[in-house]
């Protein structure tokens, strides 16, 4: 017992060694996955982009025009006004993300749906919509059931017509003898729509109708100008119109709106201006000085050509178009169904056995492997319903079923976070359940629902196994143009290259390039979702 | 407006008006679709698998080639061209992927959860949690490519006998993929442990290490366990990473022998993909074997999901 006195003397001493080791072990464990993935991403980016093949001069020019000024301005803003820097970064990010998505939209308009067809369907939707709006003016005089029936009939007649007797509106529009050129249609269709939105935004911001009209006209004029410039520079004017209306105009409108309203942070726009102009000046300078950029495999040729037997000439274009069409189909199917189910479970469902069964069932469906959903698509849609294998429609339907549980679960969370005070207030005003859902619950929960849906779509865009199961072709040389044509997708193409065309050439060129494009699209979608979520959380 | 109109307006039963009924039934149909999905999955897998086995095929009115149920469940050779359908060859590979990924993901996932819930500052959490979400968000085919092209050659430096396709590299990427699942569910369970318990521990003179390992982890054990089962069920159902990286030759391997992880084998999900990318004809025996594997896979993952739910409910400490 010689040590007894020691322990009493050292009463306040506890060894911190175990605690410190434990803490760093935990930190290392947390970082393990992240760091491993980061290393793998660096490798794949190096293989795909080949950054070391560029001239030193190329880097010097971009350092002088882009990196150095942006770092200076950024560091200054970070020290003086962090919110301004965030605004500037957000503008740059918006431009990057909208450029990517409007590039996808340009594929849609140039090669998949001819502008005339879009125009005809737009007219075919606007006419019955106007009729329905007119009808709601006389809501009190027409019974509800009649109104529903009439709405259905008007939409059906104008979109489908009666074969043999009466042409649908899209058919009539497509038969117009004098047709404006494609870029004119896109400019007015898409540019017009965007201009109206921009105009309304500025009119509300300035509380001034004339400001809205000016902004709207300016937006339309910009779209037209860019499209016309394409006629002289040889760039496809339709694509230019889509990109202007989808990326340049919205970014400019956002920056302009921020400049008008957020006086404290508007200095951050300087950062955005430095980055954008630096990139443009740098691009022109390397061209003039003749410095070669990196021999990246992710280049224009890769993005715009289809599969080829050699890795150098292989491209992703049909897969990109297929992914876009799949995403549209999946979103159109899973969003209404998922939100509808969430609304039922949160707002309508009585607390009984059936409801609890649906509840358990949904969480189990979320755990079913994606390959089993593929079997479902193969067995039900192909074998029993007799659809052709591998089409856009059944691919989209299968992926929609796959992400439906995720959409339902995240929408339920968003709906549950709407304070019940607001519902009670609505019921207190005499609103019915549907009116409460429509006017209170859904608008309040909308940002959360949207975030969840975008994240779920991100899951769907990376899925490969269900598409293989429903028989989507490994190699597709042309873009799918309608719902019943065969579809490819970006991850499917990556799989085909890395398994069926396995060779050193594909492993080091085409596959890394495909992976980088796929990850860039996913990153863009996830960052949109995260920005939306942060905005939503800071507001509520 | 006359008083009669006003009275009918005020006393009208709105809950059963056509508009309310229409919207209510639309929402109900949406929710019922999930039940329809489950029912069709089960019905499809069961009927198609029944056509595969000789014992049940006559019930389905199927004549022609069938396979024996006993051979399917106990055979260890999977060779479609020789009509040998021994699912154990596939199950052993799936089991190895599951064990391998569990060795990586379970300790790292729990450690991550403890760090996030007990140690990390609010700022660190706001960076680490989205970063972990990215791990789960990368498409699985990309993970498969990483395993094949970067991880296998790197492992080859240390382990010279490793094959081009091997279980080890596939297990590593599947493990990394499911870390976020273990971490987020375990962290939810740990955050639900009331602060009183921690304060009581500190009051007794315990260190943060004692509190984390002696109080928080035991109190959150049911949640941690259910996260394990969910993550493993995800690893079993994982398809593209193992299809690309684990191999294409079905082989019965001993999961307890470490050297067998260096060989390639064919997990269940990869076998299903292989059956479809190969030249099988619709309605043939190989086509039906697809649904038999699918049924085995579905039953295993369903049982695991149910156990996980049950554990989380039953053994949850209520505070």
> How are strands sequenced across the largest beta sheet of chain B?
1-2
Q: Residue-averaged pLDDT of chain B, rounded?
A: 87
**Straight-line N-to-C gap of chain B:** 58 Å
**Tell me, what is the CATH class of the largest domain in chain B?**
Mainly Alpha
Largest beta sheet of chain A, briefly? Answer: none
Low-pLDDT residue spans of chain B: none
CATH class categorisation of one domain in chain A: Mainly Alpha
CATH architecture assignment of one domain in chain A: Orthogonal Bundle
- Per DSSP E runs of 2 or more residues, the count of β-strands of chain A stands at 0
Structural class of chain A: mainly alpha
- Please count the helical segments of chain A: 21
Instruction: Give the structural class of chain B.
Output: mainly alpha
Could you give the order of the helices and strands of chain B? HHHEEHHHHHHHHHH
What is the terminal-to-terminal distance of chain A?
Answer: 64 Å
Encode the helix/strand succession of chain A as letters: HHHHHHHHHHHHHHHHHHHHH
What's the alpha carbon Rg of chain A, rounded to whole Å?
A: 28 Å
Describe this structure in words.
Chain A has 540 residues and is an all-alpha fold. Among the domains of chain A are: 20-50; 317-539, Orthogonal Bundle (MetI-like fold). Chain A contains 21 helices and no strands. In chain A, helix 16 (392-416) packs across helix 18. Residues 1-5 of chain A have low confidence and may be disordered. Chain B has helices at 3-11, 18-52, 69-74, 88-119, 122-137, 140-158, 167-191, 195-203, 208-219, 221-237, 240-245, 268-277, 285-314; strands at residues 78-79, 84-85. Helices cover 71% and strands 1% of the residues of chain B. Chain B has 319 residues and is mostly helical. Chain B has 2 domains: 3-52; 78-314, Orthogonal Bundle (MetI-like fold), CATH 1.10.3720.10. In chain B, helix 4 (88-119) packs across helix 10 (221-237), helix 6 (140-158) crosses helix 7 (167-191) and helix 7 (167-191) runs antiparallel to helix 10 (221-237). The mean pLDDT of chain B is 87. In chain B, a hairpin with a 4-residue loop joins strand 1 and strand 2. The interface between A and B is large, with 89 and 90 residues.
